[in-house]
Amino acid sequence: MFHHSQSNVLINGDCLFRESIGRTDLPGGNHAQLISSIKNKLFTLPDNTTVFSGHGPETTIGHEKANNPFINY
């Protein structure tokens, strides 16, 4: 992941998507660890942080806090 605080942009690969999360059903995947990382690292960023994932549409931290069904925030 890469966070550029001056432009308020996060490039996060396949960890967090617009209203979804990365897959944890593949070998080495850990659902609890992924959710913990999202909540304790990504969701501490400002709500207006723009998130660019590995693929799919951009989103914001605030949108994901309010609308991501995979995160019980």
List keywords for this structure.
73 residues, 6 strands, 4-stranded mixed sheet, alpha+beta, 2 helices, two-stranded antiparallel ribbon
Please give the structural blueprint:
Blueprint: E1 2-4, E2 9-13, E3 16-17, E4 20-21, H1 31-40, E5 50-53, E6 59-60, H2 61-67
Parallel strand pairs: 2-5
Antiparallel strand pairs: 1-2, 3-4, 5-6
Q: Distance N terminus to C terminus?
A: 21 Å
Helix coverage percent of residues? 10-25%
Please state how the strands of the largest beta sheet are arranged side by side.
1-2-5-6
| Rg from Cα | 11 Å
The number of helical elements comes to 2
Tell me the overall shape. Answer: globular
- Mean pLDDT across every amino acid position: 96
In short:
The protein is α+β, with helices and mostly antiparallel strands and 73 residues long. The protein is built from two helices and six strands.
What does this structure look like?
The chain is an alpha+beta fold and 73 residues long. The chain has one domain (2-67). Helix content is 23%, strand content 25%. It contains two helices and six strands; from the N terminus they run E-E-E-E-H-E-E-H. The chain has helices spanning 31-40, 61-67, and strands spanning 2-4, 9-13, 16-17, 20-21, 50-53, 59-60. The chain has a four-stranded mixed sheet with strand order 1-2-5-6. The longest helix has 10 residues, at 31-40. It is globular, with a radius of gyration of 11 Å.
